[in-house]
């Protein structure tokens, strides 16, 4: 069963008296554990597609299934709960709270999970900051961190809710080449070790080179699909043993 399935999805926006078609009859299946890149130039519709998969927006036509559930017609509260428990987000601008420390930023999405005790929240914060290599910077605020460190905090925050899917919108766009490479490698290792599904919106050739599959989009339509040689692209931590999380 597909983790994400889009069936004949279209998205229209009204700008003044003009109607803009952002997506046109898109059908796509994404499987559990994939490292997928949705690639295209600015204005191609890739961010719109990511927003629909993330239940931030709803389609004008067609259906979207997330983890086997049809999300069509769900209320905003139902979609919010689905996002919180199923989907993590990583943005190119990091979207961290400037007045909160790294550990407080990671904790923030966990506060809506009433079933989690303070002890369980602390355990998750410690675990995921360790995974992204930032244990020593737990009390630092974003303005005390480099761009790469801030993106690592954003990754830890996205993973702390233990989502099945992580959506990454141009995650390397504001990073220098070396830092971007490190961030991509980290996400690839997390994908391999914990089987978390990553879906990228990107025009970065480095992301496409590392992806298991690249889906190209142009003018709101999927134009081609390329399945990569996984043995060539997977560069996992040698001898790493998946950490039990929870």
CATH architecture: 3-Layer(aba) Sandwich
Which superfamily, in CATH terms, is the homologous superfamily? Answer: P-loop containing nucleotide triphosphate hydrolases
CATH third-tier fold name: Rossmann fold
**Assembly classification:** single chain
Helix and strand arrangement:
Layout lengths: L3 E12 L2 E13 L4 E5 L6 H8 L7 E6 L2 E2 L5 H11 E5 L10 H6 L10 H14 L15 H14 L4 E5 L7 H18 L2 E6 L2 H6 L2 E6 L2 E7 L2 H4 L13
Helix pairs in contact: 4-5, 5-6
Features:
246 residues, alpha/beta, Rossmann fold, 6-stranded mixed sheet, 4-stranded antiparallel sheet
Commentary on this structure:
Helix 4 crosses helix 5 and helix 5 packs parallel to helix 6. A hairpin with a 2-residue loop joins strand 1 and strand 2. Helix content is 33%, strand content 27%. It has a single domain, classed as P-loop containing nucleotide triphosphate hydrolases (Rossmann fold, 3-Layer(aba) Sandwich), CATH 3.40.50.300. It has a six-stranded mixed sheet with strand order 6-7-8-3-9-10, sandwiched between helices. The protein is built from eight helices and ten strands. With 246 residues, it is an alpha/beta fold.
């Amino acid at each position: 069963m597909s983790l994400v399935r889009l069936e004949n999805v279209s998205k229209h926006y009204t700008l003044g008296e003009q109607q803009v078609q952002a997506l046109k009859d898109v059908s796509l299946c994404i499987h559990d554990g994939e490292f997928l890149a949705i690639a295209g130039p600015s204005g191609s519709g890739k961010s719109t597609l990511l927003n629909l998969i993330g239940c931030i927006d709803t389609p004008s036509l067609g259906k979207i299934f997330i983890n086997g559930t049809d999300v069509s017609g769900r209320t905003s509260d139902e979609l919010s709960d689905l996002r919180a428990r199923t989907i993590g987000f990583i943005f190119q601008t990091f979207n961290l709270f400037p007045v909160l420390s790294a550990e407080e930023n990671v904790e923030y999405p966990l506060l809506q999970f009433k079933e989690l005790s303070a002890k369980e929240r602390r355990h998750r914060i410690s675990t995921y900051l360790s995974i992204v290599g930032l244990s020593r910077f737990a009390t630092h605020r974003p303005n005390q961190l480099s761009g790469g460190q801030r993106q690592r905090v954003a990754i830890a925050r996205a993973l702390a809710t233990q989502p099945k899917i992580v959506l990454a919108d141009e995650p390397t766009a504001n990073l220098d080449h070396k830092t971007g490479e490190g961030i991509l490698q980290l996400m690839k290792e997390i994908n391999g070790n914990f089987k978390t599904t990553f879906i990228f919106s990107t025009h970065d050739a480095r992301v496409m080179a590392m992806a298991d599959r690249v889906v190209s989009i142009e003018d709101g339509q999927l134009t081609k699909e390329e399945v990569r040689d996984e043995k060539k692209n997977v560069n996992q931590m040698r001898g790493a043993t998946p950490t039990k999380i929870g």
